Amino acid sequence: MRKSVKRAIVLVSALAVTGVASAAWASWLANGSGNAYAEAGTAKELVISEARTTATLYPGATGDATIRIENPNAYPVRVDKIKWTPSDGVQAAHVKPGSTCNNTGVYFGDFSNGPVGTDGLLSGLELDLAAGQITTFTLPHAVHMINNSEDGCQGAVFSIKVKATGTSNA
C-alpha cells in the first residue's frame, strides 16, 4: 500500500473518531432555558348560610350557637376565627304576635369563662371543611343573653351576622 493511501485511511479514521466523539459531546451539552408556567386559582369567600342559637336562652344564660359554612373552593379550608361586630346587633325572628324583641340582649363571643365574653371574637378554632363541603358546626358557649332582654324575646330565634376567617388546609 502506498503511503498516500495509508495517510488517507488514517486521516479518515481520525475524522470518524472525532466526529463520533463530537456527537457524544453534543448529546451531553444539550441544554436550554426558558420559563415554566402555572396559574393559581382565586380564593372564594366562605358562605355562611345559618348562624343561630341552639340552646334555650334566658336572661343570664350562656348557650351554644350553630353555624353552617360552605367552602366553595377546590381545596380544603380550616376556619380559625369567627367574628361578630357588636354594632351589627342580633336579629330576633319568630317573635310572638303582638310582642316586640328589639333589645335582644344577646351577645356573641367566647363566654366559656363567664358572662364578660370576648367582644364578638371566637379564635383558636379548628373547623375543617373539605373542598366543596357544607357543614354545620356547634360553637360551645358562644352566645350569652344579658338580664335586660325584652320580655317579648321569649321563644324567639336569634340570627347573628358573623364573618368566618380561614386558611388553606391542603
Characterise this structure:
By secondary structure, the chain is α+β, with helices and mostly antiparallel strands. The strands form 3 sheets. The chain has a 4-stranded antiparallel beta sheet with strand order 1-2-7-5, with no helix packed on it. A 3-stranded antiparallel beta sheet has the order 6-3-9, with no helix packed on it. The chain has 2 domains: 1-29; 47-168, Immunoglobulin-like. The model has no long low-confidence stretch (mean pLDDT 86). 15% of the residues lie in helices and 37% in strands. The protein starts with a helix and ends with a strand. It has one helix at residues 3-28; strands at residues 47-53, 62-70, 77-84, 90-93, 106-108, 121-129, 134-145, 157-160, 162-168.
| Count of separate DSSP helical elements | 1
Question: In percent, how much strand structure appears in the residues?
Answer: 35-45%
Q: Rg to the nearest angstrom? A: 36 Å
> In CATH terms, what is the architecture of the largest domain?
Sandwich
CATH third-tier fold name of the largest domain: Immunoglobulin-like
**Biggest sheet character:** 4 strands, antiparallel
Low-pLDDT residue intervals, each spanning 5 or more residues: none
Mean pLDDT: 86
Structural class: alpha+beta
Query: Which sequence of strands runs across the widest sheet?
Result: 1-2-7-5
Tell me the domain tally.
Answer: 2
Number of strands: 9
Alpha-carbon distance between the termini? 78 Å
Question: N-to-C SSE series?
Answer: HEEEEEEEEE
Classify the helix fraction into a percent range.
10-25%
What form results from the Cα inertia axes? rod-shaped
CATH class designation of the largest domain: Mainly Beta
